[in-house]
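Q: Fold this one first, please.
A: Sequence and structure below.
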Amino acid sequence: MHEVMQRVPAEAARYVRADSGFYSKEVVGFCERKGLIFGVTADQTERLLAKVTGVAEAQWADLEKYGVAQVAEVRYQPVGWKRGYRYVVKRNLMENKKGELYFRYHVLVTNDERRSAGEVLEWHLQHANMENRIKEHKSGFGLEKLPTKWFHANWAYLLIGQIAFNLVAWFKQLVLPEQYHQLTVKTIRHQVLNVAGKIVQTGRKIYLVISDQYRYQDVWQHAIKKLAGLSPA
């Protein structure tokens, strides 16, 4: 980090955003001494999680860009740190294999007191965009391991996976609501694609019928309207 600082023009705005590998009082202290605005993913210790889960419901604000997610903030001083800091928290509503709902948290520490919690969070989450795309390419489309020992078979498999990746990327950008643009294909499969329904033919028309209790039917309605408005180039 010292070498990086030597190469940054003196007049440039200086920010640091990093994952939890950099979460330490030494890194935070360095940023403070150098006048750097930082956002670092925090380790979710028992004490910190107790603080996060104790946030009143009224303090959580919806995050439309991130699906079923909300943001809040707390003040917290880790053990051994000289003072407390602002911690911004994102929580996503998730569903386990038993159909039970739970919250998954992402927490970051920052000294940015100017921007809102939502703005700090959005800025911070941009630090791993390329890593996330590589991870999505591998785990989301089954490309973490090539299936055969034959070059041409693996080449075809990789090409098909890349085409699928690109199609889903276009599908998200052109058809789904904005809050779905950054979601993984696993989430999209769960909320949009893997839907129980049946085909009904009546009055010389064919209908797809899904339950009126379907939690994400507003997303379906949005997608259908967008699809109807698309035209070939």
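Q: Good. Now the second chain.
A: Here it is, same layout.
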Amino acid sequence: MEPPQADAGLITTARDLYRWDQALYTEVLVKRAMLDSIFTPGLGDYGYGWFVRSGPDGVVHGHSGGLPGFTCYIMRIPESRRTIIVLGNFDRLGRTVGDVAAILRGDSVPLPRARHIIAADTAAQARLAGTYRTAGRDSVLVLVEDGFFVAQQPGKFRAQLLPESAQDYFAAQLRGTARFRENGRRTTLVIEDGLGREVVRAERSRR
């Protein structure tokens, strides 16, 4: 894939990125005055190619990146000279980096919950399928497609729903959950991501 801007086209390893990171504590690559400028926020919390933010580890420098099939995240902790580098081919590396930072601080990190996928209740899925509407009247489509139960909000997300019960599903691509709750003729759908943040809430009424 051609890079959309002045990014991509770089092949490296986590070990070599770490060598580059450590060189930024010296003047081997860039003079000190320029380094100070690079890590000074100018537009909001953004310096020259780095987000500069404060948190439990003090001031940290970080950035993510990605194209389809390639994702990366680097977080520098100058106070301890620790660096967390994650290279992968899936989204949401920020949580992985945050968990590693917490482990390095000695904080506890909640383990992912095991998923118990059951056989699909095709009758329940057929009943739940349809067009749901958010409070802003955006459409959320729930459908059975080529044998898969899918939820999608056009232009925002598309996720296969794997059943954990007749009304509770694992939203695979979001690493979260989709919950259907039926109340008379009204069905409410709530989809959350892997951090428990609400992605969408929508309702459908049957005539």
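Q: Anything worth noting on the second one?
A: Helices lie at 14-23, 32-38, 93-105, 122-128.
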